[in-house]
Amino acid sequence: MRPLFTTLLILVVSTHFWGALPAAAQESSAPERDEPRDIGLVEQTQSRITQVDVSVHGPADAISALTREDFALVVGSKPIDEFTVDNLCPMPLPEEDDAGDAETTGADEPVTRPKVSFIFFIDQQHLTQRGRANAIFMAEELIRRLIRDGNRGILFSNGKDLKAFTGLTDDQAEILSALGVLDGDKHPDGRQWVPDATAEDYAIDDINRTLRNDGTDRAMMVARQYQKAEVLRARKAQDRLVIALQTIAGVDPPKAVFYFADRMRKRAGGHYRDIFGASALSDSRIAAMENDAFGAAHGFDMVNEEAAAKGIRFHTIFGEGLTAESSTRDRDARTTLQSLAAETGGESFLGTDRMAGVQRVAETVEEDLRCMYLLSFQRPKGLMEDELMALRVELKNPDKRIKIDARGQIIFESRSKRQTARLLAAFVTPDSGTSTSTVKASIVPTGFEDGHYSALFQAGVGGSPLPGAVWDIGLSVVARGKVRQQKSGRIEVSEAGVPVVFEAELEFDHGPYEIIVVAHERTEDRIVRGQLAGSFPDSSETVAIARPIAIVRGAEAAFLRDGEVRRTHSGLLSVSSAADYADPTRTNIALALLCRDKGKGSQSFILRRSLSGENSVEFPQATIEFQNGERCIVNRDTIPPNTMNSGEFTYSIELRRKKKGEPIASAERHFVAVDPSIDPRELLAADPTPQ
């Protein structure tokens, strides 16, 4: 299960963080820069290949042997003459009597079955309780039938926040296991099921009751509030859909989304206006409701444009299913799903019976994927980037037995748009970065003041093999479902192989938090991602030791803090996890934040600490004094050079009451020490448990 950011976070990161970073900070200790050096890199502008997947239906002998000469391609009003066609139709070609003819048709050449990438997007904010149960049931069956033979999938849930429960994977068992976590009450934070769609019936009753008891004016005010809430939900879901699309933006077609919803409407909240009938059309409040409903519809334009730019089809599923009685609001929701599917080249499904419905969905999609052709071409001169245009694919010699399905719109994305998509994908899921390496993220608690914890966050990235590396690094802190803080900066290093460390001072309330950091090296165009989760204690209730306990070592790197870069051989770097090591040949420091409750006056505790491993160390017992009003104290234990050998260690700390001596709080930190001259893979049979 992989947590995600809220829409606000993603939009800010994509438009502000990456597009408007401050000028690069220079290395403060470096001499004046020499003249630019030729490092053998030449930047070239290249045309990007655009690919359109086309589904072909009909008799096998008619559809499996189409060639480039059979297709006509038009974008906007401009015919495309230069394009190639790849046959992804793994069907047996008809036998030829003439061996020579068989050879020319390619009958003996294997045809590769297309590998499809699916997003399963369960929009819980727009699902009724019945629709949610049906959606999870249908998603499970679709995953079993479709995630095979190299097809891949990723599971999203739009609850109170947006979460990706897997990365993009061809492991069917992993996605099914994640769906099991999503189902029922198994989800640990309980934020995925929301009753908004189910509560819609109550909203209708509330408006009608107010209309009967308090008159039209009051009822319109109530309806206006319900509509505003629906518009907000719709826009949020639309934004999150766009975010989810980024996770398959860079993969090869064909690509498709299964979107499950019951109450998503283009005219969000427009059905509340219908309660008042034609007699109220002249009322200014009705006009305002119409304007809001019309404005919400623009969010679907954004979804359609992203789908057109990324070559993604939407298969939409009305989870609740059809009923004998159908209201205007139900018809609006179904029409919206039908429109979204049609505009992106997909299918909409509004069935009733769960098993029959899922079978029909799977068979329709499988048939759609059974025979495909991939048309590839470059953007012709005169056609603009980032502009929605009509797309038409036809057969030059129409055959009534053959039906062609292709999306009806296309966008040629600019380089900056594609870059933004890659960065969004890096934030959304760990599996979407372009590099196998990651950011080493760590946090050092530093204090408590005015009800907030303070901490130093560090994000370390290995050096680039090229000189002149430029790193853009940004982070966001998420707590209680909202983005609480954002930090960003740029680091330039002139030498090759120099690691970089981004530092930021952060504040936290008590409770769980999550930090996600993305780094983009501009010279190599490399993106790496890191993630850190933890929790600060509620110090108003009990004496506590804040986690994590930080193990800090010296490091040679370029450090960026508050816009200034310092290139140093002795900077302090917190050991992040099993992927990072303490250096036993240098001084290491253990830092622990000790906090007491809100008791007034001075207070004393006995402090015990130890370091255990191949070498064990008992630090002298100490008495720690909290002065009047002081809530938290940082304890610092120095581990001198050569105190440890290479191996696994545990630092333990314990607070005891001074009078009675019984323990009241304790914590441990497991870490690894490795002599830098030794390959750590030769020493470690297993990773320690990171905090």
Describe this structure in a few short sentences:
The chain is an alpha+beta fold and 691 residues long. The protein is 25% helix and 34% strand. It has twelve helices and 31 strands.
Q: What is the CA-CA span between the terminal residues?
A: 18 Å
Major sheet characteristics: 7 strands, mixed
Taken from the alpha-carbon principal axes, the silhouette is globular
Number of helices: 12
Rg, nearest Å: 30 Å
Give the low-confidence spans.
Answer: 1-46, 93-108, 431-436, 680-691
Task: Describe the model.
The chain is α+β, with helices and mostly antiparallel strands. It is built from twelve helices and 31 strands. The radius of gyration is 30 Å and the shape is globular. The strands form six sheets. The chain has a seven-stranded mixed β-sheet with strand order 1-8-7-6-9-10-11, sandwiched between helices. The longest helix is centred in the middle third of the chain and has 30 residues, at 216-245. Helix 4 crosses helix 11, helix 6 packs antiparallel against helix 7 and helix 7 runs parallel beside helix 9 (284-310). Helices cover 25% and strands 34% of the residues.
